[in-house]
Design brief:
By secondary structure, the chain is an all-beta fold. The protein has no helices and eleven strands. The mean pLDDT is about 95.
């Protein structure tokens, strides 16, 4: 069984910082893309930051220069961790943040990857 779990949300004042962490663990053969998404109140889920297995990263325009992402290099292990460092936070960053991972389970008979989502963590930026 594969699990994707986020931690680190909370309440922060504008201009403050938060670090989110996501861990994918379990029956994993390989983790491919690992991304952060967010869903602001009343809006659709949107991509915040993305990483590929080869280390390529990209960010939404709204967070460039403020957010950074890091991923461990254990792509051939059963556990991968993805962090999102959020600086200079704004009220419009308020959202539920979700971690996504594209994973090849180690019991796959077809070699087909599956999409896994975490349960989400609330980030609220308010004075």
């Amino acid at each position: 069984q594969v699990q994707v779990v986020e931690t680190g949300g909370g309440l922060v004042q504008p201009g403050g910082s938060l670090n989110l962490s996501c861990t994918a663990s379990g029956n994993i053969f390989r983790v491919y893309d690992m991304n952060w998404y967010r869903q602001p109140p009343g809006k659709q889920r949107e991509l915040v930051a993305a990483t590929t297995i080869d280390g390529t990263t990209r960010f939404a325009d709204s967070v460039k220069g403020r957010f950074t992402i890091s991923r461990d290099t254990g792509k051939n292990t059963h556990k991968n961790t993805l962090s999102l460092q959020m600086n200079s936070l704004k009220p419009e960053d308020t959202a539920v943040y979700y971690c996504y991972a594209e994973i090849l389970p180690d019991d796959s008979e077809t070699g087909t990857t599956k999409d896994y989502w975490g349960q989400g963590t609330q980030v609220t930026v308010s004075s």
